[in-house]
Amino acid sequence: MKNLIFFCSFILLFSCGNKNGGFYSTLNDSKSSAIKVQLENYLSKNYEPMSSFYHESLMLFVSGSNDTLNYSDVFEGIELHHTLFSNIDIPMQDGDIHVETSNYGKEVWSKAYFTWNAKGRFTKQAVSNTVHIAYRWAGNKVVEEHHYGDRTAFENEIRVYSKTNNK
Q1: What is the pTM of this model?
Q2: Domain of residue 97, residue span
């Protein structure tokens, strides 16, 4: 009887395994690696390879904002980051950044967790901000991106930048 229960439990365990329809996550996969490359391109303002990362119908959401941004807004936003901040850095060592890709049946999402560091060009303040970005994939392109992090330093820098440039 014990053997029968063990055998049935064993069969049940493996019959409930992933058949590419359930949830599973991976690290160091091609999508997670592409995100790390994308972040390195962001740091160096290397726009050409960045453009192939996104689908033209991209929707981008930033915490604290009610706006939905699109493909063309991405590069304007990156340029604004580099206008407002110097010494932008994202430590890319494995202990400093975590990127994973999860399959939720029909949807594939990647998530990146890291610390974004910079110095405000106008406030002269050092910034260290913990960031989480979620990316939804359609094939090999990102179609949806959500940014989560404290926007205080960014908003302060915009405020001082605006005052400086409106004189």
Answers
A1: 0.82
A2: 24-165
